[in-house]
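Re: How this chain folds, sequence and tokenised backbone to follow
How to read it: Take the token row as a discrete description of the fold.
Start of record: The labelled sequence and token lines come straight after this line.
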Amino acid sequence: MPLRETLLLVQKCAHTFSFYDLATGLPQKHIVLPNFPHEFTVDAARGLAYVGHYGIETASHLGDMGGHSVFVIDLARQEHVATLNLWPYYRPHGLTVDGQGRLFVMSEAHNVLLRFSDPAKVFVPDLAVPSGGYKTHLFALTKDAQTAYALNLLSNTVTKIKPNDPTFTPVAMVPGPVPEGNVLSADESLLYVANRGDDSIVAVDTATMKVVARGNTRRDPNRVYRFKGAQGQDLLLTTNSGEHSLSVFGTDLQEQRCFALPSNPLALSFHPVDRAVYISFQDDTVRRLDLDSFEFGQQIKTLREPDSSYVWRH
């Protein structure tokens, strides 16, 4: 039986976790969640999704600490089946699951990385490690989950931390102002960081925590992704929120091409087989982009503010 493909989508301002059939682009189900869910991740078995409850529209909405939960979604049943409790840590943002099934969640409000060693059964964290920075938004986790690199918007730092070793002292460096987008190289020797404050992209040597290369981006690069080019070479993508564009860089951090996007890009996800990505836009659409022709294909109309997505093959 051929695999089915479903686009999983958090819709932040529609307050839903949604299932869209990729063959038709039509919604299958919207699971209504407490207000302002944000990022999510899917476990290695592709059975559960973990959705962070950011809880406020943006961090600049004063007077409300936000959410302190992660919602567990059973993908086969299309149901919200459990809620993980982060209290007293608020505003979960970056989330990822390692090869052992452990869930790591960053509390942006309290700059703490939380570990759930068995999130399908135990609904509270068993370890908390400080990020070593302020307003920690995202993080990159190595394949063995022994090291993480935290992106700290307010301290303008990247910090190397050990998510399973609370005795390790974070190692900080400054890649540029307002670092946010990030991705590790294939061999994890470099961390590529997009700096929103000065429109730059840098390569950080993860052993020395020094900048070893730097390039210029378009305005306000909010994310950076790594993908394979048609000849098998590593390439980087930046989504540039300030001018609604997408740029392609070589690993030398020289821009190879840039083209306009139809709206402000919010996030993108890779198709696991096809050479394509699905980009969420602020005009409440998700569009498929071919990575060879860089032409847009399928367009899916969503509810309100589509955010993180994932192509679920099942």
The chain has no helices and 28 strands. Residues 18 and 30 are 4 Å apart (CA to CA).
